[in-house]
Specification:
Helix content: 55-70%
Order of helices and strands: HHHHHHHHHHHEEHHHHHHHHH
CATH class of one domain: Mainly Alpha
Shape: globular
CATH topology of one domain: Annexin V, domain 1
CATH architecture of one domain: Orthogonal Bundle
Strand content: under 5%
Distance between the termini: 18 Å
Oligomer: single chain
CATH superfamily of one domain: Annexin
Radius of gyration: 22 Å
Mean pLDDT: 91
Number of strands: 2
Low-confidence stretches: 1-5
């Protein structure tokens, strides 16, 4: 089915959704089909069209008709990405106890534009009664965390990491090979994207801040981990190995502890391979004692249109089974059908 804007019929979809929720019982299969064959932007249009057509709120109807994890996943799919991130952070902070793992997963993996959008909407999501300000997320983080972990989260929540521009990336592409199926293979000269002298200096500073002294200079770790762009940090990790014969994550393990250590390791793992980081998070969510459905839903929904293909590849390589198979075996009912439809069998 062609889902381009030109051929997509939103009116047909809202009629289909309305009929699925009218009368006795709910047609969950119909709801699953519509929302998993549309992207997030199209689902935002569906909400508007539904209200225009029926004078009803689609989200309120879904909330009253569905239940359990299936309802949670469907509701998540109808929320814009930044608003969903804001909702998840609100839950992590305002819920019973602080969910540090969720704060780390969201704040350490988002790009500057994603963080800046999150800052704009967070106040309305978390505390509509408070005066709107993009600094509200910082205040909530500071009120619910402490120490070096707090400072790392606040730094990450600025959305001010130096990032490579599209022009710089294009200049670093030395060769494009087009495969038989039409896909392009890019040969990127990463040394053009990183200041190798800076990478060496930063590696030495990290060594002096950790392995080479009694105690750890946590501020130096925060500064370098939070301000350098990903290609620069990748070069720094390589220089660090040359200098110490030790991977940066090993040093983080040795020199730091607790949630601060987990946050630094999340950044390091994302630099090396972001899809692998999420594959590991999914494995932990599914394999643990009881399924961590909040994490499972959050990752599947938030990465569906970004890098789910790559995450599935890493998951298969890591576990010798597909993510689809793990979800199929560990969930049930309409919830299982929905997640499996988003992830895809192949």
């Amino acid at each position: 089915e062609d889902l381009t804007k030109k051929k997509w019929n939103a009116e047909y979809d809202v009629q289909y959704l309305r009929s699925a929720m009218r009368g006795l019982g709910t047609n969950e299969d119909a709801i699953t089909h519509v929302i998993t064959t549309r992207n997030n932007a199209q689902r935002q249009d569906l909400k508007k069209k539904y209200k225009t057509s029926y004078g009803r709120d689609l989200i309120e109807d879904i909330e009253s008709e569905l239940s359990g994890d299936y309802r949670s996943a469907v509701m998540a799919l109808f929320v814009p990405p930044a608003v969903y991130d804001a909702y998840c952070i609100k839950e992590a902070i305002y819920g019973p106890g602080t969910d540090e793992a969720s704060l780390i997963e969201i704040l350490m993996t988002r790009t500057n534009p994603q963080i800046n959008e999150l800052r704009k909407v967070y106040g309305d999501v978390a505390s509509p009664h408070r005066k709107a300000s993009d600094a509200l997320i910082e205040k909530d983080i500071e009120g619910d965390t402490s120490g070096d972990f707090k400072r790392l989260l606040v730094a990450a929540s600025q959305g001010d990491r130096y990032e490579i521009t599209r022009e710089q990336l294009e200049e670093a592409v030395e060769e494009i090979t087009v495969e038989g199926n039409g896909t392009g293979m890019y040969n990127v000269n990463y040394s053009k994207l990183a200041d190798m002298g800076q990478a060496k200096r930063d590696a030495e500073k990290l060594f002096k801040a950790g392995e080479d002294r009694w105690g750890t200079d946590e501020e130096e770790f925060i500064r370098i981990f939070s301000t350098r762009h990903y290609y620069q940090l990748r070069a720094t990790w390589n220089e660090y190995v040359k200098l110490t014969q030790r991977d940066i994550t090993n040093s983080v393990d040795r020199e730091t502890s607790g949630d601060f250590r987990s946050g630094l390791k999340a950044i390091a793992q994302n630099i090396k391979c972001r899809p692998k980081y999420f594959a590991e998070r999914l494995k932990k969510a599914i394999k643990g004692l009881g399924t961590d459905d909040k994490t499972l839903i959050r990752i599947v929904v938030s990465r569906a249109e970004i890098d789910m293909v790559q995450i599935k590849k890493e998951f298969l390589e890591m576990n010798k089974q597909t993510l689809w198979k793990w979800i199929q075996d560990d969930t049930s009912g309409d919830y299982r059908k929905l997640l499996c439809a988003i992830v895809g069998k192949n």
